[in-house]
Amino acid sequence: MNILDKIIADKQQEVSLRKSIIPVHQLENSVLFERKENSLATALRNSNTGIIAEHKRRSPSKAVINQKVSVQDVATGYENAGVCGMSVLTDGKYFGGSMDDLLLARASVQMPLLRKEFIIDEYQLLEAKAYGADVILLIAAVLTKEQIKSLSQFAKSLSLDVLLEVHNEEELQKSIMPSLDMLGVNNRNLKTFEVSTDISKQLSEQIPDDFVKVSESGISSIEAIQDLQQYGYKGFLIGENFMKTENPGSSAIDFIKNLSS
Question: Which helix (H) or strand (E) holds 16?
Fold first, then answer.
């Protein structure tokens, strides 16, 4: 059983527990459920830098990244830096995140927020909406084509943007459908955990221009972004590069200044 299979098995248990505690109508009655959407896809299309900055405490491959900074400080720091949006990990067991992180980020900033999570159930989309997310992530590696279709269509009915993540050509081909806004290519090989932006370059031509192209993982230099921009990428998800510093917000400010100059 690889790490992804383990995460999904745990996630199924977790979702059924959450469902038993907080009923759907309670989520739908939340104050944030009627919030006007703030589209990340639109922000990326209109940006020259396209940075989506991440709040991530730890990961299965890196153990602890940063346990010290508060999610509020990180969020306001990122917004002041001028990022297009922020990715908030809400998985507890493997990444040390929580739904409270999403809620606190939402209370602190106006920019689009992505709920970064292993989504397998419509209930998680209702949660995302109720806790202030603007965007949800679907991971092609753990979903069938039918699941991608039904989950993305449900997300659109809630006025949520959809970022779909692929790791290879096979996942990309099963995933292209009108209910997506952004197609993300994860540069990390899930079997080996090795990272290379070559996969983003290889898949770029096969992503139709209707979708905003996003490159994820292992992006730590200005040169990598400038290189990928030539392949049509408008979004760049940067997590550990900012989070491993003492002040992720000021790291993002310096990075974006250099990228814009």
Answer: helix 3-21
Query: Which candidate in 38, 54, 117, 200 is catalytic?
Result: 54
- Cα–chain-centroid distance for residue 234? 14
> 252: how many CB neighbours lie within 10 A of its CB?
25
Any idea which residue has 């730890």 for tokens? 58
Instruction: Respond yes or no: is residue 28 known to be catalytic.
Output: no
The secondary structure of residue 36, as a DSSP letter, is P
Catalytic status, residue 216: yes
pLDDT for 29: 98
pTM: 0.96
Is 165 tagged catalytic?
A: yes
| DSSP run (H or E) holding 166 | strand 161-166
Active site residue 54: yes
Residues 55 and 70: their CA atoms lie apart, in Å, by 10
Under 8 Å between Cβ of 80 and 46? no
DSSP string over 151-164: HHHHHHHTT-EEEE
Residue 11 annotated among the catalytic residues of the structure: no
Q: Is 149 a catalytic residue?
A: no
pLDDT per position as a tens digit, 96-151 = 999 999 999 999 999 999 999 999 999 999 999 999 999 999 999 999 999 999 99
Is 214 strand, coil or helix? strand
